[in-house]
Amino acid sequence: MKEKRRWVLTDVDKQVWVETLNLTAGELGVRGAAFVRKRTLHGGLSDGVDVVEINNGAMSITVVPTRGMGVWRGEYKGNPVGWVSPVRGPVNPMFVHANERGGLGWLGGFDECIVRCGLENNGSPGTDVVPNNMGEPTEMTLNLHGRIANIPAHFVAVEVGKGATPEISVTGMVDEAMLFCPQLRLVTRISTRLGSNAFTITDEVVNLKSTTSEMQLLYHCNFGKPFMDRGARLVMPLAETAPRSAYPAKEVAEWSLYRAPTPGYIEQCFWHVPVGDAKGNTLALLRNAAGNKGVAVRFNLKQLPCFSQWKNTGAESDGYVTGLEPAVNFPNARVFERKNGRVVNLAPGRTYRVDLTVEVCGDAASVKKLEQEVRRLQGKTPHCLQPGPLAKYSPQA
Q1: Which residues contact 133 (CB under 8 A, 6 or more apart)?
Q2: What DSSP letter does each residue of 36-78 carry, written as one string?
Q3: Nearest CA to 51 among 146, 187, 148, 158?
Q4: Average pLDDT value for residue range 87-115
Q5: Strand pairing category for 281-287 and 294-300
Q6: What domains are there in the chain, each with its CATH number?
Q7: Which of 31, 106, 148, 227 is 20 to 30 A from residue 122's alpha carbon, by CA?
Q8: Can you tell me the mean pLDDT for 352-370?
Q9: pLDDT tier at 2, thresholds 50, 70, 90
Q10: What average pLDDT does range 84-88 have in this prediction?
């Protein structure tokens, strides 16, 4: 194949919308068992949801344009990538009521493997004071984790590159905009190479407004079995770790360790300051107890300097999962993050870029290789584990 090939699935401006698409390896112009499928779901809370499945011959991922171009689920050589949520999704945003339960309604659509939190805000629900359309300070209510995950894409396309191991990708555009409010556009490209054990998300957030806008962005990367089990660990190079809230000393000491599914378990969160290489590249690895399966999230600290770890080891029926969450901020209320300098101010027309890769390990050798990489990144940097929450990271301190 000499040139990149492209199939437009959605283009609202040109009134293009393709309900179903089935592209075989031959039609894609690649070898092996790769394919791309697009379909629209019907029935229940998924009614009207578009999904695009990309299979590179070894790994498959399902992207959901209807839900802000999130990644719903994946699989690599029989290993499911994602988690089992009590929510039966993917959920059409029309059924998600963000302000219910005190601003926690976002959870009514939460079952993706990777979901973006932002773009105007993320973190805990609460109030903030911003200028209204008259320029007057006005109190507004912010819901949990913002709006972007519940906004459909207005442009979606599938692309296939050229070369010996071509990339298969889905691109999309999602606008989070209101009159007199921030006008932010997410331009995303989710790609994987033929036969690869990884996929990459390349995002650009563009400020379409004529004035500076605030921006927050967190990648809620969620994994359960087979990477999470009793004795599983989070392995990553760190300079500092602090609990979000006051936890028992034993729980803090075991921040990296996961327990078996435990009915009634109350979620815990830890805030981390990662260590990277000279270019800012780093990774977080979740490996199972046996050390023969793992999933890693690679990111860059110049783009995503903060990292949150969400431990939710409740019963399997309640959602046995951990969140590995690189971000521009910690997921506290925006007013607290602004005070601590962790809210991006995006000038008119400016773009904020993020590159994030998810890599799956299906054997002990590949897990060990990533653990060695973490040790190299850690180097001689000491890891400071704080016994309790710190005022610079947590309003609970």
Answers
A1: 179, 180
A2: EEEEE--SGGGTT-EEEEEE-SSEEEEEEGGGTTEEEEEEETT
A3: 158
A4: 96
A5: antiparallel
A6: 5-385 (2.70.98.10)
A7: 227
A8: 98
A9: low
A10: 95
Please give the mean pLDDT across all residues of the chain: 96
Question: What beta strand segments (E) does 236-290 contain?
Answer: 238-243, 268-274, 281-287
Would strands 213-223 and 114-119 be described as parallel, antiparallel, or unpaired? Answer: antiparallel
pTM listed for this prediction = 0.97
Reported as half-sphere exposure (CB side, CA atoms, 13 A), residue 135 has a value of 1
* E strands in 102-237: 114-119, 126-131, 137-142, 155-160, 167-177, 183-193, 198-207, 213-223, 233-235
**Which has the closest alpha carbon to 365: 298, 290, 297?**
290
Three-point CA angle 190, 194, 197, nearest 5°: 75
Place of tokens 């399997």: 316
Angle 266-151-143 (CA atoms, 0-180°, nearest 5)? 40
